[in-house]
Amino acid sequence: MTHLRALLICLMSTLWLTAPATAQNAVAFGSAQADPSQPVEVTSDALAVNQVDGSAEFTGSVLIVQGVMRLSADRVMVVYKTDEAGKRAIERLEATGNVLLVSGPDAAEAQRADYTIDDGTIVMTGNVLVNQASGSLTSQRLVVNLTTGTASMAGRVKTILNPSTDTDN
User: Fold this and answer.
1) pTM of the predicted model, to two decimals?
2) Range in 23-27, 33-37, 124-128, 144-148 with the lowest mean pLDDT
3) Which of 108, 118, 104 minimizes the C-alpha distance to 152?
């Protein structure tokens, strides 16, 4: 029992000292790489289009599906850009209210998410909670790179480590 306690103290001390350094390192997110060039499917209760500024606002149980990625929120603003040829394309999605991002077995919750389509990155902010098979993490900011299937967290990162339940030791 004392060996287990000493091991846990050593492990926690190591994690405490290295947590700020590792908070900037990439961690896996999602079981497969996503393709930001795939079509974006949006389902919602209502849609308001603004022809003047080239935006569209989806409200009420918004669900966005793009390949293996699922993003849901209370409200999503779609901001368009116009290329040199005059064609409109989605520049970014701004999701607010009960934001949930799911990619494979991993899920992240936050108050806001900004998805930049060209970069294939989603920046989630405000009480971020990431749930993975290996455990949960919290922070104030999560940056997910959909093309590489990685993420980084910053802003008081916290995790709960579950000790082994192996009773043979």
Assistant:
1) 0.76
2) 23-27
3) 108
